[in-house]
Specification:
single chain, alpha/beta, seven-stranded mixed sheet
Length: about 375
């Protein structure tokens, strides 16, 4: 029997999860990833709910627990330096875990590696579909033919651009930017995430796993022609947003110096992706390439859930990819839709636009249960 070949673009969370499950259903997965290797940093994300169940079935929960961060609580810090908290992070189940995103990607990739071909340092430059498959042209690898293509390559998906059209038709800036970087030093509080706010800006120090990380989330309009791989331009955007001398959270000058020097900076616009359909012929989209928006770390869990749903749908009708793509999309839109609609509340809590908004948020936070409550 023919083992259908599936080329997956992207070695983040969704791509390797999909590869793992496709291999178990008898498909032959290949992953192509533009980066030469996996990134060394990453903001912490939660694996929760159905995603935790998927991780358990994959046998990776013990590895996730070993890689878990030390954070047990969250605190908002007032202008006077008084912490409101630590507040509970809301992980009632023992199988739910917070882990640095790139550790999660590495653990999933390792689980998929024995049954998956990886092409690091390469990318797709052209796709040509016909009734029997897809001819793929790569930047480095010789052209090859696959039965199906999956774009799991994130917000700035090249597969989506090649097949569906220009990014600006589907990606809509929501008025926020995010940047994260490692601090290469221990956090002052090894178990509590600390957030400092000024109107339209937040600064978060996360204890991660012994070595702290910092996150900048701030409001701002869309910046025309800002390349998503232009690290020096990204640094300038963050530095301009946090250069106001009227705001002095602890260590902010040192953090900005660290930002100027860092090479491994994650930066992006917080955007909403909306497409009328997630597939075209033998090509389908998965994860942030199809739909995204999450400020509470749910994006990685959604990526795992979507990947498992995709594989299950394809296994149910292996000879009818169109029906499988429709079934996957119908199921996963129900899971991802509520997260997209919750963006406004998340933004108001994490980055209040005004001083009044910060005060109101802090008053509400002061009434929430504490870690030691």
């Amino acid at each position: 029997m023919h083992r259908s070949s599936v080329l997956i673009c992207g070695a983040g969370i969704a791509g390797p999860t999909l590869a793992y499950w496709l291999a178990r259903y008898g498909f032959h997965p290949t992953i192509v990833e533009r980066a030469e290797d996996r990134r060394s940093s990453g903001n912490p994300v939660d694996v929760r709910g159905e995603a935790a169940q998927i991780a358990s079935r994959m046998g990776i929960l013990p590895g996730l627990r070993e890689a878990a961060t030390f954070a047990t609580g969250f605190a908002f810090v007032t202008d006077s330096g008084r912490p409101i908290g630590p507040l509970r992070l809301g992980r009632p189940r023992s199988d739910e875990v917070e882990v640095p995103r790139n550790d999660l990607a590495a653990i999933i990739s390792d689980a998929a590696r024995d049954d998956t071909e990886f092409l690091f340092g390469d990318s797709i430059t052209a796709l040509r579909q016909d009734p029997g498959g897809v001819e793929v042209t790569f930047r480095r690898t010789a052209p090859r033919r696959f039965d199906l293509i999956v774009g799991a390559d994130g917000l700035h998906s090249s597969v989506r651009t090649l097949v569906f059209g220009p990014e600006e038709e589907f990606v809509h800036h929501l008025g926020l930017y995010i940047a994260t970087l490692p601090l290469d030093r221990p956090a002052a509080d090894p178990t509590t995430i600390l957030m400092y706010n000024a109107p339209g800006r937040s600064l978060t120090v996360h204890p991660v796993r012994g070595e702290a990380g910092v996150g900048f989330i701030f409001r701002g309009p869309a910046i025309p022609d800002l390349g998503h791989r232009d690290t020096e331009a990204h640094k300038r955007v963050v530095l301009d947003a946090y250069a106001d001398d009227s705001w002095h959270p602890p260590d902010i000058p040192d953090l900005l110096d660290r930002l100027r020097a860092v090479q491994d900076l994650y930066f992006d616009s917080i955007s909403r992706v909306r497409l009328p359909v997630w597939s075209s012929g033998r090509v389908a989209l998965l994860g942030d390439a199809a739909s995204c928006v999450s400020l509470f770390g749910d994006g990685s869990s959604l990526a795992m859930i979507g990947a498992a749903t995709f594989a299950e749908s394809l296994a149910a009708t292996p000879n009818d990819h169109a029906a499988a793509f429709r079934a996957y999309e119908t199921r996963h839109r129900k899971a991802s839709g509520p997260r997209q609609r919750g963006f406004a509340l998340a933004a108001a809590l994490l980055v209040p636009a005004t001083r009044t908004g910060i005060t109101a948020r802090n008053l509400i936070a002061g009434m929430l249960p504490r870690v030691d409550g």
